[in-house]
Amino acid sequence: MNELLAVFRRELGGYFATPLAFIFIVIFLFTMGAFTFYLGGYYESGQADLAIFFNFHPWLYLFLIPAISMRLWAEERRTGSIELLLSLPVPLWAAVLGKFLAAWVFSGLALALTFPIWLTVNYLGDPDNGVILAGYLGSFLMAGGYLAIGSCLSAVTRNQVIAFVVSVAVCFLFTVSGLPIVIDFFSGWAPQQILNTIASFSFLTHFNAITRGVIDLRDIVYFTTLIGAWLIACGIVVDMKKAG
Amino acid sequence: MIVIDGLTKHFGPFTAVDRIGFTVEKGEVLGFLGPNGAGKSTTMKMITGFLAPSAGSARVCGHDIVTDTLAAQRTIGYLPEGAPAYGDMTPRGFLRFIARVRRLSGADAEKAIDRAVEATELGGVLEQPIDTLSKGFRRRVGLAQSILHDPPVLIMDEPTDGLDPNQKFEVRKLIARMSAEKAIVISTHILEEVDAICTRALIIDRGRVVADGTPAALMARSRYHNAVSLTLSGQTTVQMAEKLKALNGIASIEIAPRGAETTFTLFPVSARESDVVLIDAVARLARDENWPVRALYGEPGRLDEVFRSLTRSDTTVTDGKKDAA
């Protein structure tokens, strides 16, 4: 536990030791706002809720989250500090989890800083704050899902660009697996059972369910299982690299 | 405290480390020698748990590095090759992180950090990001990290690489100071370092141990061991060489002119015997002949020559023995 905390604190501090945290948060907030108000036509919609705002989250995360996760392991491997980390008495799970949690808390912080939009909607109208809270929870869980995928893929390579590109691709598949772009590929020859299974992997399906304000245990379980599975995969990849 | 047995590492078809075995006791400083790619770093990576061995075992303070990894790692201080650190941190922040991982907290942690900082003379740069530090300072940050928890076992991959001569001297002093209480393994390319701080040297080549002994014993394998070196100034003549060669017990002679001086290296018939008799004979001859002597000494042997002869080819050990004879 000590070691987990030590890794977590070091990693989280690492974001703020460089301009990375500042730049990321500014760009995150700026694009969030631009998408919601201009692309999404927030004012014109005349709705006192944040559905439009949350609609953009998966697509923004698709590019911004791999930008956080790509450095998690690839950078350690490139600078050689991974040799230090893995020769310190830190259990593998503590290293994997500590890094992931630091990145998750950081993305959670960026998400929390969108609170002015929540103030705005409360000023303009009378939204259902329970639904908004559910939306934030769903968004946070989804960010964790993207991060876990990116974390694992970052452990595969020492090249951050590769880690980024591959993460975006895999995250994209997980995002859209419920949409026709993927389903059409399988429909016609794969049984309905498989189609349903593939569709059930979609971030969008589960995220949209949560943002409607219905916090179904199944959606929560989906995201936590997904995070757990990718983190275990990440640990296996790091451990396999030890074997050379 | 360190027991290595049959340690082997394959990378695909390539065997980087091939059944290496040795032990290191408390109070010993083991110098790990070998050309680039001989398997020094790979061996250290296996002992510290960064790489998993393909075969064989490594036990540190009684803990097997594969089955009891964390317990073994707690007893080790490790300076990896190139002294990697987290460049965005300051040395103080970095050492605090190491202290936390090493389960030191509060006053204990600060005391340990102060001690390590003092030993490595990092005081002036504690608040600068490690990325902005010179190579020498970065190396010392790595050293400080490795000794922070006062480990019983120290493993250092090229601890003096990239340091200037003064810093090298300081690091060697530091290692010598700690050596009585610890088992230390260092790898190095610098042969004089072995003579200066190591109680034992291990030469490895192509993943195998080709020599294991005290620096003096290794030097005794040199063909220069117990040879006599005589340096004369001014003109030298063929007759001089003839007269030297005529001395009792001389097998052969090498002549190396350098500037206004000439050095004769006299190889005795038997290198196992002390060189005192031969030195006396040469001194008497030089006095009788009135030669302008600049230097006269018995050679302890040359480590670099032993190193080259042992690591040159596959016919390693026999080569060394032939040379020494």
Structure commentary:
The complex is a heterodimer of chains A (244) and B (325). Chain A is mainly alpha-helical and 244 residues long. Chain A has helices at 2-17, 20-39, 42-45, 51-55, 57-69, 71-79, 81-87, 92-112, 115-124, 129-156, 160-176, 180-186, 192-200, 203-211, 217-242. In chain A, helix 1 packs across helix 8, helix 8 (92-112) packs across helix 15 and helix 14 (203-211) packs antiparallel against helix 15 (217-242). With 325 residues, chain B is of the alpha/beta class. In chain B, the strands form three sheets. A six-stranded mixed sheet of chain B has the order 6-7-8-3-9-10, with helices on both faces. In chain B, strands 2-1-4-5 form a four-stranded antiparallel sheet. In chain B, a hairpin with a 2-residue loop joins strand 12 and strand 13 (261-268). In chain B, helix 3 (91-101) packs across helix 4. Chain B is elongated. The model of chain B is unreliable at 313-325 (pLDDT under 50). Classes of the chains: A mainly alpha (244), B alpha/beta (325).
Notable features of this structure?
heterodimer; A: 244 residues; mainly alpha; 15 helices; 82% helix; B: 325 residues; 4-stranded antiparallel β-sheet; 12 helices; elongated; disordered C terminus
What proportion strand of chain A?
under 5%
The number of helical segments of chain B is: 12
Q: What is the helix fraction of residues of chain B, given as a range?
A: 25-40%
Mean pLDDT across every amino acid position of chain A: 89
Low-confidence stretches of chain A: none
Strand order of the largest sheet of chain B: 6-7-8-3-9-10
Mean pLDDT of chain B: 87
Ends distance of chain B: 35 Å
Layout of strands and helices, then pairs:
The complex is a heterodimer of chains A (244) and B (325).
Chain A: H1 2-17, H2 20-39, H3 42-45, H4 51-55, H5 57-69, H6 71-79, H7 81-87, H8 92-112, H9 115-124, H10 129-156, H11 160-176, H12 180-186, H13 192-200, H14 203-211, H15 217-242
Helix pairs in contact in A: 1-8, 5-10, 5-11, 6-10, 8-10, 8-15, 10-11, 10-14, 10-15, 14-15
Chain B: E1 2-11, E2 14-24, E3 29-33, H1 40-47, E4 55-60, E5 63-64, H2 69-74, E6 76-79, H3 91-101, H4 106-120, H5 135-147, E7 153-157, H6 165-178, E8 183-187, H7 191-197, E9 200-205, E10 208-213, H8 215-219, E11 228-233, H9 238-245, E12 250-258, E13 261-268, H10 276-289, E14 293-298, H11 303-311, H12 316-324
